[in-house]
Write a structure and sequence with these properties.
Structural class: mainly beta
Order of helices and strands: EEEEEEEEEEE
Oligomer: single chain
Strand content: over 45%
Radius of gyration: 13 Å
Number of helices: 0
């Protein structure tokens, strides 16, 4: 069993920055690839970013490439999402998730564990 708790969300103006954190407990954090997803009102949950167990591989949605950076600190059992140049369309609830392998379907929602989400609101 893995428990994930997101933090760092809030209200920010367009063009601003925000860093989300996801703290993990339970099973060994380093044994999981970690992803970030988001869901806006009336929209389906969408993939944002993923990072492999050892941080050697990262992948991003086209909509955030060049603006967002995912990273992890296995010693602290924490994964981060640095968000720069934020746009109003980035407004959503952001979720972190864990899966045992990154595989070739990491953009899907088929992850083993999910956090409760943290709200990010970007004003124009």
């Amino acid at each position: 069993q893995v428990q994930l708790v997101e933090s760092g969300g809030g209200l920010v103006q367009a063009g601003g920055s925000l860093r989300l954190s996801c703290a993990a407990s339970g099973r060994t954090f380093s044994g999981y690839a970690m992803g970030w997803f988001r869901q806006a009102p009336g929209k389906e949950r969408e993939f944002v970013a993923v990072i492999s167990r050892g941080s050697s591989i990262t992948s991003y949605a086209d909509s955030v490439t060049g603006r967002f950076t995912i990273s992890r600190d296995n010693a602290k059992n924490t994964v981060y999402l640095q968000m720069n140049s934020l746009k109003p369309e980035d407004t959503a609830i952001y979720y972190c998730a864990a899966r045992r392998t990154m595989g070739d379907n990491y953009k899907s929602s088929r992850y083993d564990y999910w956090g409760q989400g943290t709200q990010v609101t970007v004003s124009s």
